[in-house]
Each structure stands twice: as structure tokens, then as C-alpha cells.
Design brief:
It is built from 14 helices and 22 strands. The chain is an alpha+beta fold and 495 residues long.
Length: 495
């Protein structure tokens, strides 16, 4: 069915709703007002309503303020299924970059210390700090050349995530409480194929391409003084934001399971059906399996293991950041992890759905968990404050730190936005935006960009993304999360 926009109707503050119809099991809700939604791609609305047809879907299917077209599911989509009543798990609801996520670190330096980081030095042969970072943390075409692991080290990372990174000397135990799930899901290295493992042996501590980055930022504004103090944020202090995921290993895991599941469906009368799995879907890219089936469990174990690799990847990048700062400043620089969040993941969680307790698998694809300050699932001193929610913008504007509710769980299964969200596809951006001009314009704003290719600057230009301020406003007005601080980019390492 086309023309889903015609069924949108206002639903409270900064929300629009499509009531369930045709094959939809639940309503679809989009965070946004009529003006914001008018700029949404029709296909993304179709994908959201399609996701509302998944067997076992409960509550509502959610599109965050940054949602846009993805593979099967929209990016910025949140869908939960009741796993005790036929609920499915879908690789498309997680995405190809499993546990793509963001880590924010506070740096014990102020804006006044920026000069030593940006000027070139002579005599000692030391490089400008941006070049030093780029050399230590590979990105773009060099993003495969991270730390080389032994097979045993990789197996331990797949099993134990960030803890294993600490044990081999590329992470820190003190960082673990500041990570979702303490930086580990229940992994199973045997669930990951040898091909996927080979892709992970040499990529740890790398950023990759696309919208991934490492930024040195300055905390520009504080909106919630109490929450900012709890998070260790103060105006004028420097910070580092690392955005990367499970690299080629995670991509391979997703690809293998998508291929396997899609092979079990056949199309008939416009619907894709699997007699073996006993389910039907409107789009083959929603290929799923009952959570408790062999196929569902196989994917869930492999996904969890790939997620552990991503936690370790961000830990390794943080290790290199600390090392680069120490070498460049010629003294120890304190770097504290504020928080580490996933925004491509499926988690088994207990939720109350319209007054009834439900054991759900919550798919968050381009969406961040935003649990309340009374949740037993968050640690790190955030009680009564809410979980930190990290919302990167584009490289030419700003990023935000938000917080979940002080108490309780928001209506979107405790979820929030994950970034600005694309306004132009990568193809459109390359056709419309000149990368060299972007670099010059950012330099005029005092933002130093270190990229691998101008075309990636075109794809990731500010004009290719939605207005991050607007996304945060809508997210706040809808009650999903509240703004705590705004961060401005200074040095950007791009893939």
C-alpha cells in the first residue's frame, strides 16, 4: 500500500500516529510535528508500517525524530515483539553494523589547551594532533588495519566484549560501569562463522567509513546542571566522541543470517510466506524467525557476539586516544568515559504494554536506549538522573548529550533518537554537494577535518542531514529524553 502519509494524525506533543490497518498488528507512531513529517520520505513511512506487521509485535512501532529509509526497517525505528507469544527477531531490525554505537569521553583539558593540539610542532618531529589520531585510529580505506588479534583473543572478545579488551591491554576495567550492559552481552564465539572471524582479526580499534567518526569537541552549552555534573560534563571542557561499530565482522554476521532467512520465504499474492517458520511478512527485507526457534536463537547468539566485538572496538579506540594525548601533550591526560551506547541492537527486556507485563525482544535500529534513573539496568552513578543518551550531529554543527527520564520508562520501550538522521541519500549528496567546498566551509568555522576522500565529505556534509537542534527539540517535547549538554566539534577524523 502507498500513501501512508494520508493516515497520519496528531497524537499529543510532537507525535504523529498511524492507526493499525490492513496487516498491521499495532499502531505506528512517529516523533515529529506536521512540518517535520512533511519532509519525511514516503518509503520510510511504508517501512515503519510494514514493521508493525511483524508476528508478535506489541505496543506501537516507533519512528524516532531522526528516522529515515533503511533496509527493511527504517533507521530510527523501534519495534518490540512478545517472545512468549510467537514474537520474532529480525536481522533487518538491527542492521548490518551490529552495535554501531557512540562513546563519549571527557578530557581533562579546556578550550585554552586547544592550541597545543592544533598547531604543528617542529624539532621533535611530532605531528599535528589530528594526524597523530588518524595514524593511531585507522579510518576509511585504512579502517581494516586495526590491531591484529590472535584467534584466541578474538574468541575472548566475542565471548566477553569490553572486559576481554581490558584483559589484553587495550581497555580499562574502570570504564565498564559506564557502558551499556557493562560492555558485554552473552556471547558465543562458536556462533560466528570463520569468514566473519577473519574479517574481525585485523580491524579492532578502527572507525571505518560512512558516518563513522572520532571528534574532539568542546562542551558548548549546559541545559541541565545537575545531570551534567553527574555525567562529568562542564562548559568549556574538551571531550571526545567515538562513533563506530562491529566493522566487517558484524556486517558478515548480518549478511549470512539475512541470506539464510530470506531463502526460507516465497512470494505469493504480494506477501512473503515461510511454511517452515510459520510466518508471513510484506517485505522480504523483514525476513525474521520466531525468537525461540533454532534460526532465531542462532542469529541472536551471533548478533550478541558481534555486539561484544563493537564494545571492544570502541574500547580499543579509547585506548589509542589516551595514548595519543599522552604522547602529544608529553604528560598524562585524564580521559574519563561518560557513557557508551548502542544504537543498532536487539535486546530481551521486560516491559509493561498497556498495563500487561511482557517479555519482549526490542529491536532498536538507529535508536538509543534511554532508560530511567530508577532502572536496575543502568549503573555508573546515574540513579535519579537517567541514562546518558548520546546524540551525534553532523560534523559541521553540534552533538548533544541527553538523559532518559529521572524515573520510569518512556512510552517507546525506553528509547530515543540516535543522531540527526539523513535528509539526503548518499547518492543524492554526492550529486548535489562538493566535498572540497565543505572542507573549506568547515575550516572557516574553526573545524579541522581529516578525511580519506572528498566524496565522503559530500556524503556526510551538514546539508545531507536533518537539523540536529530540531531532532533534539522534538525528542524532548515528546518526553523521550531531555537535553543535558551541547557539544561543538573542533577536530574531526572521518572515514
Amino acid at each position: 500500500m502507498e500513501g501512508w502519509r494520508q493516515f497520519l494524525e496528531p497524537d499529543g506533543d510532537s507525535r504523529m500516529r498511524i492507526k493499525k490497518r490492513e496487516r498491521m498488528l499495532v499502531d505506528a507512531v512517529v516523533i515529529g510535528d506536521s512540518k517535520h513529517i512533511s519532509n519525511c520520505d514516503e518509503k520510510s513511512l511504508e517501512q515503519l508500517t510494514n514493521s508493525a506487521t511483524l508476528p508478535g509485535a506489541v505496543g506501537e512501532a516507533w519512528g524516532m525524530a531522526d528516522f529515515h529509509r533503511g533496509y527493511g526497517f527504517p533507521i530510527g525505528g523501534v519495534v518490540a515483539t512478545d517472545i512468549e507469544n510467537g514474537g520474532v527477531i529480525s536481522p533487518g531490525g538491527v542492521g548490518f553494523d551490529i552495535n554501531c554505537g557512540v562513546r563519549l569521553c571527557s578530557i581533562d583539558l579546556g578550550l585554552e589547551d586547544l592550541a597545543p593540539l592544533t598547531r604543528k610542532k617542529s624539532g621533535s618531529g611530532s605531528k599535528e594532533f589530528g594526524n597523530r589520531l588518524k595514524a593511531r585510529i585507522p579510518s576509511g580505506d585504512r579502517g581494516k588495519s586495526g590491531r591484529t588479534l590472535t584467534e584466541r583473543e578474538l574468541d575472548q572478545i566475542l565471548l566477553h566484549g569490553a572486559k576481554a579488551a581490558s584483559e589484553i591491554g587495550i581497555g580499562y576495567d574502570d570504564d565498564l560501569p559506564k557502558m551499556e550492559m557493562n560492555g558485554a552481552l552473552e556471547g558465543d564465539s562458536d556462533s560466528v562463522s570463520e569468514i566473519a572471524k577473519r574479517r574481525g582479526l585485523g580491524a579492532l580499534g578502527s572507525i571505518g567509513r560512512g558516518n563513522h567518526f572520532l571528534e574532539i569537541q568542546v562542551i558548548d552549552e549546559i541545559f541541565d546542571e545537575h545531570a551534567a555534573r553527574c555525567f562529568g560534563l562542564s562548559k568549556g571542557r574538551l571531550a571526545a566522541m567515538i562513533h563506530t561499530g562491529s566493522r566487517g565482522l558484524g556486517y558478515q554476521v548480518c549478511s549470512e543470517h539475512v541470506k539464510m532467512l530470506e531463502s526460507k520465504f516465497k512470494r505469493s499474492d504480494g506477501i512473503w510466506r515461510s511454511e517452515e517458520l510459520g510466518i508471513s511478512i510484506p517485505d522480504i527485507h523483514l525476513a525474521s524467525a520466531p525468537f525461540h526457534s533454532d534460526e532465531g536463537q542462532s542469529y541472536f547468539r551471533a548478533m550478541s557476539s558481534a555486539a561484544n566485538y563493537a564494545f571492544a572496538n570502541r574500547s580499543s579506540a579509547t585506548h589509542q586516544l589516551r595514548s595519543a594525548l599522552k604522547d602529544h601533550m608529553r604528560s598524562e591526560v585524564n580521559v574519563e568515559v561518560v557513557y557508551d551506547v548502542c544504537h543498532n541492537i536487539a535486546r530481551v527486556e521486560g516491559h509493561e504494554i498497556h498495563g500487561v507485563s511482557c517479555n519482549c525482544v526490542v529491536h532498536r535500529k538507529g535508536a538509543t536506549r534511554a532508560f530511567g534513573g530508577d532502572s536496575p539496568d543502568i549503573r555508573g552513578g546515574f540513579s535519579g538522573v537517567g541514562q546518558p543518551v548520546l546524540v551525534p550531529g553532523d560534523m559541521g554543527t553540534s552533538s548533544y548529550v541527553m538523559a532518559g527520564p529521572k524515573q520510569g520508562t518512556n512510552m517507546a520501550f525506553g528509547s530515543s533518537c540516535h543522531g540527526a538522521g539523513r535528509a539526503l541519500s548518499r547518492t543524492q549528496a554526492r550529486e548535489m554537494i562538493d566535498g572540497a567546498s565543505v572542507k573549506r566551509e568547515l575550516a572557516e568555522k574553526g573545524i579541522s577535518i581529516y578525511e580519506t576522500h572528498k566524496k565522503y565529505l559530500s556524503e556526510e556534509a551538514p546539508a545531507a542531514y536533518k537539523d540536529i537542534d530540531e531532532v533534539v527539540r522534538l525528542t524532548s517535547e515528546s518526553g523521550l529524553a531531555r537535553p543535558v549538554a551541547k557539544l561543538k566539534p573542533l577536530i574531526v577524523i572521518k572515514g
